[in-house]
């Protein structure tokens, strides 16, 4: 579940970018995997979703949102769950290096 404590205040100006998303009107199943999906079928679905994201005028806002709330599921801002986990791990490693 997303960490809702990290969400911005529920004002329209915080979320207006979503109205411009290339994903609006697309089947949400393209962006969120069904339970147990693995292997080539998951890779193909993710590639199709990321192709939609690549055309999106608000990809940066979407990615920033997903990273800031640690969105746990789906393709957001052209990033899969695994892509985001890799970013979190890199951020953690940098913090650990800075502390040492």
In short:
The protein has helices spanning 12-15, 39-54, 59-68, 81-99. The chain has one domain. The longest helix has 19 residues, at 81-99.
Largest sheet, strands/sense/barrel: none
Q: What distance separates the N and C termini?
A: 31 Å
How many separate helices?
A: 4
Share of helix, binned: 40-55%
Give the SSE string.
Answer: HHHH
Radius of gyration: 15 Å
Strand content: under 5%
- Topology, number of strands: 0
Averaged pLDDT: 89
Q: Name the structural class.
A: mainly alpha
The backbone outline, from C-alpha atoms, is globular
Number of domains: 1
Which runs of at least 5 residues are low in confidence (pLDDT < 50)? none
What does this structure look like?
- The protein has 100 residues and is an all-alpha fold.
- It has one domain (4-99).
- Helices cover 49% and strands 0% of the residues.
- It has helices at residues 12-15, 39-54, 59-68, 81-99.
- The radius of gyration is 15 Å and the shape is globular.
- The protein starts with 11 loop residues before the first helix and ends with a helix.
Write the layout of secondary structure elements.
Layout: H1 12-15, H2 39-54, H3 59-68, H4 81-99
Which key features would you list for this structure?
100 residues; mainly alpha
């Amino acid at each position: 579940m997303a960490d809702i404590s990290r969400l911005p205040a529920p004002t329209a100006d915080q979320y207006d970018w979503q109205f411009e998303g290339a994903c609006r009107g697309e089947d949400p199943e393209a962006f969120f995997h069904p339970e147990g999906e693995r292997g080539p079928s998951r890779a193909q679905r993710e590639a199709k979703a990321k192709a939609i994201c690549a055309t999106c005028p608000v990809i940066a806002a979407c990615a920033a949102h997903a990273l800031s709330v640690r969105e746990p599921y789906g393709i957001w801002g052209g990033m899969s769950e695994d892509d985001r986990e890799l970013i979190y791990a890199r951020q953690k490693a940098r913090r650990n290096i800075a502390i040492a």
